[in-house]
C-alpha cells in the first residue's frame, strides 16, 4: 500500500491518541497528515481542502463521529460525500458496528489501535472498493459485504495464525490398521 | 501486498446515468434472517466509486506490510520513555486529584466528562503502547463511567478504588505487568464493576 501524498485527516479529541496514530501513519509511509479535535474542525478542513481519507473517533465532540459521518454522506453538494471514513471505537459490540455501518462508515477499527490493525483496515479499504448505495434513507458504501481476511494480513480473527504442518512421511496408518478400525466401529468394539 | 482486482481507471462520478438494479437484486453477503428479502426502494441506486485514496494507495512503490508495521512499531517505541515519565504520570495524577476532590465533596462541574475523557485516553494510549495493566484498569474504569452515564448509580467508592489501582500501576515495577500477573487486583476490580453495573 502506498500512502505517499495522500491527505489523511485524523479526527480525535485526544492530542495524544492523534500523535500515536500520526506516528503509525508515518511509519506506513504517509507524509500528509492533518489533525483536528472536533467535528467543526473536520467540516472546516473539508471546506478548505481535498481530503483523501478520514480516520474519525466515535466520540468526536460535540455530536460524535457517526453524526459527522451521516452529515458528510448526507450533504448532496459535497465533494467529500464518497470519501472513505474509518471510524475508531472502543466499543466493538455488534450493535455499535451496525450503527457505524448504517451511518455510512466504510469500516470500524477497535481502540486501542495497533499498527497491524490500522494497516490492515486501510489496506482493505484501498484494495476492496465497495459500490455506493443511494436511497432515500441511506447514502454510503454498500453495507452487504464480507471480510475473508485482510489483503496480505491476518485472518478474520486476531488469534488467527499460520500453522506449520510437517512434511508427509508416509501413511500414518497401514491399510490393515485402517480396516481393523472400521470393522471395530461397525461391530461396536472399542 | 495483494494487488487489487479493480482496474485503475479514473474515478466515476455517481449520476443518474449509472443504471443500478434495486437493492434486493444485488449482493449476497448478508441474507435476511427471516428468509424474505425486504422490498427495495424504487429510488435505490447502486454505483461504483473509485476514490483518489483507492487509486493512489494501489500505486507501486509503497512500503510492504511487514516493514510498514515494523516502522510504525518503532515509532511507538520512541514515544515510550516520555509516555512513562510524563504523560502517564500527569494523566493518572490529574485523574486522581479530580476524583479525590469530588469524593471529598467539592463542586467540580463536568467532572464526569473530564474523568471519562482522561480515562479513555489512558486506556487507548496504554493499549496501543503495550502497557497492558494500565489499559486493563482504565478500561474497567471506562466501563464503570459509561454505566453511570447510562443510568447506574454513581458509586464513588468503586471509582476511587480504580484510581488507586491506576496510581499503583503507573509505578515502575507494575507499569509493564500484564493483568494476569496481578490476579487479586484484576479480579477485585472485575467484581467491583460487576456489582456496581448490575
Report a brief summary of the structure.
The complex is a heterodimer of chains A (190) and B (198). Chain A has 190 residues and is an alpha/beta fold.
Describe the structure.
The complex is a heterodimer of chains A (190) and B (198). By secondary structure, chain A is α/β, with parallel strands linked by helices. The relative contact order of chain A is 0.11. Chain A has 6 helices and 7 strands. Chain B is mainly alpha-helical and 198 residues long. Chain B has a domain of 127 residues: Four Helix Bundle (Hemerythrin (Met), subunit A). Chain B is built from 7 helices and 1 strand. In chain B, helix 2 crosses helix 5. The longest helix of chain B has 39 residues. Chain B starts with 44 loop residues before the first strand and ends with a helix. At the A-B interface, helix 1, helix 5 and strand 6 of A face strand 1, helix 1, helix 2, helix 3 and helix 4 of B.
Question: What is the name of the CATH topology of the domain at 71-197 in chain B?
Answer: Four Helix Bundle (Hemerythrin (Met), subunit A)
| Fraction in helix of chain B | 55-70%
Number of strands of chain B: 1
Question: What's the CATH class label of chain A?
Answer: Alpha Beta
The CATH class of the domain at 71-197 in chain B, by name, is Mainly Alpha
Shape of chain A: elongated
Number of strands of chain A: 7
> What CATH architecture of the domain at 71-197 in chain B would you give?
Up-down Bundle
Annotated CATH homologous superfamily of chain A: Response regulator
Cα gyration radius of chain A (Å): 23 Å
| Percent range for β-strand residues of chain B | under 5%
CATH architecture of chain A: 3-Layer(aba) Sandwich
Oligomeric description of these chains = heterodimer
The class by helix and strand makeup of chain B works out as mainly alpha
Q: Tally the helices of chain A: what do you get? A: 6
How do the helices and strands follow one another from N- to C-terminus of chain A?
A: EHEHEHEHEHEEH
Distance between the termini of chain B: 47 Å
- Biggest β-sheet strands, sense, barrel of chain B: none
Q: Tell me the Rg of chain B in angstroms.
A: 25 Å
Structural class of chain A, please? alpha/beta
How confident is the prediction overall: mean pLDDT of chain B?
A: 80
Amino acid at each position: 500500500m502506498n500512502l505517499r501524498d495522500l491527505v489523511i485527516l485524523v479526527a480525535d479529541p485526544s492530542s495524544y491518541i492523534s500523535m500515536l496514530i500520526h506516528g503509525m501513519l508515518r511509519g506506513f509511509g504517509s507524509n500528509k497528515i492533518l489533525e483536528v479535535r472536533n467535528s467543526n474542525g473536520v467540516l472546516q478542513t473539508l471546506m478548505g481542502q481535498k481530503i483523501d481519507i478520514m480516520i474519525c473517533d466515535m466520540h468526536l465532540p460535540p455530536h460524535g463521529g457517526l453524526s459527522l459521518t451521516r452529515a458528510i454522506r448526507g450533504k448532496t453538494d459535497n465533494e467529500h460525500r464518497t470519501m472513505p471514513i474509518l471510524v475508531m471505537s472502543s466499543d466493538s459490540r455488534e450493535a455499535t458496528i451496525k450503527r457505524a455501518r448504517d451511518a455510512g462508515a466504510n469500516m470500524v477499527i477497535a481502540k486501542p489501535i495497533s499498527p497491524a490493525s490500522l494497516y490492515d483496515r486501510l489496506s482493505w479499504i484501498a484494495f476492496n472498493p465497495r459500490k455506493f448505495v443511494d436511497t432515500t434513507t441511506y447514502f454510503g458504501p454498500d453495507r452487504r459485504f464480507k471480510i475473508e481476511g485482510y489483503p496480505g494480513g491476518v485472518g478474520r480473527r486476531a488469534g488467527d495464525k499460520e500453522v506449520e504442518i510437517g512434511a508427509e512421511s508416509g501413511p500414518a496408518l497401514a491399510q490393515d490398521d485402517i480396516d481393523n478400525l472400521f470393522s471395530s466401529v461397525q461391530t461396536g468394539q472399542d | 501486498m495483494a494487488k487489487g482486482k479493480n482496474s485503475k481507471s479514473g474515478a466515476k462520478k455517481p449520476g443518474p446515468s449509472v443504471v443500478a438494479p434495486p437493492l434486493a437484486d444485488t449482493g449476497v453477503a448478508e441474507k435476511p434472517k427471516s428468509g424474505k428479502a425486504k422490498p427495495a426502494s424504487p429510488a435505490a441506486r447502486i454505483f461504483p466509486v473509485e476514490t483518489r485514496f483507492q487509486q493512489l494507495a494501489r500505486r507501486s512503490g509503497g512500503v510492504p506490510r511487514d516493514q510498514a508495521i515494523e516502522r510504525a512499531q518503532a515509532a511507538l517505541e520512541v514515544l515510550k520513555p516520555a509516555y512513562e515519565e510524563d504523560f502517564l504520570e500527569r494523566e493518572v495524577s490529574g485523574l486522581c486529584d479530580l476524583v479525590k476532590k469530588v469524593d471529598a465533596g467539592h463542586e467540580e462541574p463536568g467532572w464526569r466528562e473530564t474523568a471519562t475523557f482522561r480515562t479513555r485516553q489512558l486506556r487507548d494510549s496504554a493499549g496501543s503502547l503495550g502497557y497492558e495493566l494500565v489499559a486493563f484498569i482504565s478500561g474497567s474504569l471506562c466501563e464503570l463511567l459509561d454505566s453511570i452515564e447510562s443510568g447506574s448509580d454513581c458509586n464513588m467508592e468503586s471509582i476511587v478504588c480504580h484510581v488507586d489501582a491506576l496510581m499503583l500501576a503507573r509505578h515502575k515495577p507494575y507499569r509493564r505487568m500484564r493483568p494476569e500477573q496481578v490476579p487479586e487486583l484484576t479480579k477485585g476490580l472485575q467484581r467491583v464493576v460487576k456489582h456496581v453495573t448490575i
